[in-house]
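W2 domain-containing protein: structure, please.
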Amino acid sequence: MALQNIGASNRNDAFYRYKMPKMVTKTEGKGNGIKTNIVNNVDIAKALARPASYTTKYFGCELGAQSKFDEKTGTSLVNGAHSTSKLASLLEAFIKRYVQCYGCGNPETEIVITKSQMVNLKCAACGFVSECDMRDKLTTFILKNPPEAKKVGKDKKAMRRAEKERVKEGEAADEAMKRLKKKDGCSKVSKKDASDEEVSPKHDGSADDDDDDDDDDGIQWQTDTSREAAEKRMKELSAATAEMVMISLDEEEEKKSLGHEMREYLKKGLPISELKAFISSLSEPPQEVMDALFSALFDGVGKDFLKEAMKKKDYLAAATQEEGSQMHLLNSFGSFCGKSGNGEAVKEAAQVLKALYDEDVVEEEFVLEWYQKGLAGADKSSPVWKSVKPFVVWLQSAESESEGEA
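Here you go.
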């Protein structure tokens, strides 16, 4: 049976793990009784974890034709003669609307009907709840024919675990693309020249004494030379000088800090392949180095955390080549999401974590270990753990199912 990737956006990904059979159709009858039989609709629906009646009804709704699915024989018929390419195109639209998660694009979703009679998709990977368009005719059919709770089949279990490792040829091709994308350098930060302003005195030495006697409080305009006044001026001068010195020291310290050094390195636009060597050259502890890198890459990122993570995933992959580095990355990820003010970022934490897992930046065993340590640690009340829990549960379920099959 010929297979293809689920979802048009994944069509050319040779390593995509979710597959479905290619559609096979057959035209039957003649004249007004002509019909199109989707021969393998049951197998397709099974791969999508949707009732075959849903896809059949969707074809009929979109084509404006009568459709029928026979539960006993598994026959899917749509009135009229329709090409395989046309039906396949409609199937892709069905997958986008009723199968793939609107958040992460994963096809492993479950249809949920709410108390208010809304049709939603709940993602088993990232936990995102997608709201289907209730204006679509198929939603009425789904409300009248809700899906039955089904156990995950062996084929679905296998899809979770399949194709995790990338082949060497694919890695080599990816590395070549990375080098092509990172040829343009970033502009250097310009330094502003500091200039001292000279304050011109308001009075010169030739001023008349009569002009100095006009203060209402009786204090003369001339400088008070008493001991008390002199001590007061010295204290004010010392405080101002100390503040200037502290500002200068803070600026110098910032220039010497690991975070500043990491930001400056990234601004140079050097090939990502050199990042590993740069990290190895730093003397700070590995966790501090990873924290600095993560902060430099995602400083100020909130709502578009997933988008930015996908843009910069190659940096994270390059930084996780050494033993223990994946756990360091996960710790930095958790710290970043747990910071106050990163409320928008933590909402996308599960999606980002799943994306890093799909890209083989972090592996399952480290994610599970990191999560368990987090729940048992001092920051167990952090919203990060609640956000990533659906993805972790999904990983644990896949692991237990795989062990049961062995």
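Notes: The two ends are 25 Å apart (CA to CA).
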